[in-house]
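User: My collaborator and I are trying to settle a disagreement about how two of our proteins should look. Neither of us wants to argue from intuition anymore, so we agreed to look at predicted structures for both before our next call. Could you fold the first one, then the second, and keep them clearly separated?

Assistant: That sounds like a sensible way to settle it. I'll keep them separate. The first protein:
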Amino acid sequence: MAVITIAELRVALEEALGGRGMTREQIGDLANYVLSFFGHQDRIVDNTLTTADRDVFYMLDEAGLLSTSLEEVTIQKGKTWRIHYWILKKDRIHDLIRSKKKEKGKGEDFEVYGKLSDEAWEHKSG
């Protein structure tokens, strides 16, 4: 799947977190912050995160932009090593972008009616 750009993630974050009182600048900073972890990857290992990073990731998980997964690997002496991952939900991000475009397009279709004067709406019989 294609790489998520900062601009794409910004749009998805605006859609997912728009009601949380974040400014466009804060959302842009958050997009940069998140992609600084993922880069061109779909997932990252949880143990690379600080507690503060993890708090942000849990918020994004609740917003549906990230998810977690667990991998169990058997190492020497039969011990099981658990590796926790954070996964960037690219499909969800693209869905949010598409819904934003549809929403924007709907308003444009009927914009002309909002520009008509009250007189234009009055029915005049001959």
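The second protein, kept apart from the first:
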Amino acid sequence: MAPVSASQFDHDVVEKKIKDIIQDLFQIMVQVNTYDQFGRPGKDVLESSFSQLSKSISTIHQIANTDSLSHISNAAITTPSEDRTIKLPEVPAELIQYVDNGRNPDIYTREFVELARKSNQLMKGKIEAHAQFRDILAHEMCKALPELEADVMLILERASGNTDVIKQRIEEES
């Protein structure tokens, strides 16, 4: 018989705990559905079922945290003892409010992407306008102060400007 690896053991434990959670949920469902049919089973029985479910969920959470931390420690990353919880992805409050109002989160995503696209187009326009201004300013400086043409071209090269366009404009005017 082949030896059982630690990861296989962890997987089996997690699988068993998930089955326990499903069983606890089934027990709660049965108790809730038969609550008024055959007489009340009692508040204590339902409370014990919920406490058992809570324990099962806590156990699976601890196993998941332990497994995550073992992977982190295997990667030689040390974390402070107070940072031993797993950080879940953050959901924007606007999205939660959007869903609470009964709207589709896909619409929120589409609107967000459209807003980002508009913002990117605006920024692209500003960048192109600044580039045109840089080229026009360089051309006018070279035209007004020809002795500074070499310095202006050097600055343009360093600012990733197109010196060929400026040189062509200067030659055309000459």
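Some points you might bring to the call about the second protein. The radius of gyration is 34 Å. The mean pLDDT is 79.
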